[in-house]
Write a structure and sequence with these properties.
Length: 149
């Protein structure tokens, strides 16, 4: 009679963040890479609370003005911002940040050189000019760096 070999117990190590015996798509809450938990919101939800921005735009400047000065406090990174570079500025028209697009970054570099850090503590003079908004196709007021003081 042939002896049956006992099957050796197989040890399965789960991938980091997975629980043994759980489906591979399951990750316990709080695990690295876990999907954020949805939390219901309570009370009134005002669109103006979410549509408002701390970014200074040409539309914020009164139409009677064709240029403004803003003092640069620092450069910051703002997650989710479409602008490659953002200046934190002294409040102007209730706005605290000035997003710089590639055109304004190149203009600023042409004025002060490659190290933009030297404009911290100085004022940027911004000219207001008409631009085409690519999202809406309509004309709007844009801001263009003209000089540093």
């Amino acid at each position: 009679m042939a002896k049956k070999k006992k099957a050796a117990a197989q040890v399965v190590s789960a991938a980091p963040g997975f629980l043994p015996g759980a489906p591979q798509s399951f990750m316990p809450p709080g695990s690295p890479g876990a999907a954020p938990q949805a939390v219901p919101m309570q009370g009134p939800i005002n669109a103006s609370d979410y549509a408002a921005s701390n970014f200074l735009r040409g539309q914020d400047v009164p139409t009677s003005q064709n240029e403004i000065k803003v003092k640069v406090l620092s450069f910051v990174k703002i997650p989710g911002s479409r602008s490659p570079l953002v200046c934190q500025i002294e409040k102007a028209y209730d706005r605290e940040f000035l997003p710089l697009n590639k055109t304004n970054i190149k203009q600023l570099a042409g004025i002060v050189g490659n190290n933009l850090q030297i404009v911290v503590g100085k004022s940027l003079v911004l000219v207001i000019y008409p631009v085409n908004n690519p999202s809406t196709g309509q004309m709007t007021r844009g801001l263009y760096v003209s000089r540093v003081e």
